[in-house]
Automatic annotation (TrEMBL):
The entry's keywords: Developmental protein, Differentiation, Disulfide bond, Secreted, Signal, Wnt signaling pathway
Domain NTR intervals: 166-293
Name listed for the protein in its UniProt record: Sizzled
Cysteine pairings via disulfide bonds: 113-137
GO molecular function term, any single one: Wnt-protein binding
Length: 293
């Protein structure tokens, strides 16, 4: 009986430890365990240009198998990083999945985690994923400890530049009448013409891209130097909507109209695919310069 009780206790303890390790990878990581340094492999593209060439294994998620675990799991982060949700998102994620190989462990600071989380968690949510429990910011050290801090030059980045919204898919109208297009120009904050391209097979490149120049019809709150990048981010954040706009391996010219929301985010509202035979769009863009709403 005593042996049975002891066996049940050990099994319960092991089960509790296993569940704790699954739920709390960072807490389960033992700073005292032996580690090794390896070169960041070329196929680990999300961290290849992060600024250092060697990483420590196991990483801060407890992953130690480079080819079987670390590299494949790193690919899960590529769609998020491609959105540009925060300028230090790559540095933050790579400090966890590919920690720099120094004499001491350098984790991201809690403040850096919070800054990246606040900008990138809404993007993850838009793509149908919660912010991972393994990246709970409370698990990282405060700034008085030795850790990776947020860079001051990026502190106002999110507030000063318009950002794409996570949104319901905008309405798309094929072969619209001239009056419909002019009405959209009048009732929206901005209107642009842009060619959207979708790769047939995404091999590391973003699946959706904006080809060539963006032509301004009504500039509104858009910044000329940033608008192409802004539209591409919108496509990468709103993947479900983007998939309905362009077929794989094809490009499509669109007139995109939208609004600047009170929180500073840009939302697309009314879209018109622009085909050569669409006289309504061509007439509307010509008449707009002299049109009174």
């Amino acid at each position: 009986s005593h042996t049975l009780h002891l066996l049940l206790f050990v099994m319960a303890a092991l089960l509790t430890a296993a569940l704790f390790a699954v739920a709390s990878p960072l807490l389960a990581f033992d700073m005292g365990q032996s580690t090794r340094c390896v070169t960041i492999p070329n196929q680990m593209k999300v961290c290849k240009d992060v600024g250092y060439s060697e990483m420590r294994l196991p990483n801060f998620l407890g992953h130690s198998n480079l080819e079987g675990e670390v590299v494949p799991r790193s690919e899960d982060w590529r769609p998020l990083l491609q959105t540009g949700c925060h300028p230090q998102a790559q540095a933050f994620l790579c400090s966890i999945i590919a920690p720099v190989c120094l004499d001491t462990f350098i984790q991201p600071c809690r403040s850096l985690c919070a800054a990246v989380r606040d900008s990138c968690a809404p993007v993850l949510a838009c793509q149908g994923h919660p912010w991972p429990e393994a990246l709970n910011c409370d698990r990282f050290p405060a700034e008085e400890d030795m850790c990776l801090t947020p860079l001051a030059k990026f502190s106002h980045f999110i507030k000063d530049v318009p950002r794409p919204a996570c949104q319901n898919c905008p309405s798309v109208e094929v072969a619209p009448a001239m009056k419909t297009v002019l009405s959209a120009f009048c009732h929206r904050d901005f209107a642009v013409a842009a060619k959207l391209h979708r790769l047939r097979h995404a091999t590391g490149e973003p699946e959706f891209q904006v080809e060539g120049r963006v032509e301004f019809i009504r500039q509104g709150a858009l910044l000329p130097y940033d608008t192409k990048h802004l539209l591409q981010e919108w496509l990468l954040i709103n993947l479900r909507c983007a998939s309905a706009l362009v077929r794989p391996g094809r490009s499509q010219l669109y007139v995109l109209t939208g609004s600047l929301q009170p929180d500073g985010h840009i939302a697309l509202v009314h879209l018109f695919p622009w085909h050569k035979k669409d006289a309504g769009i061509a007439l509307a863009t010509r008449k707009w310069k002299h049109h009174r709403c």
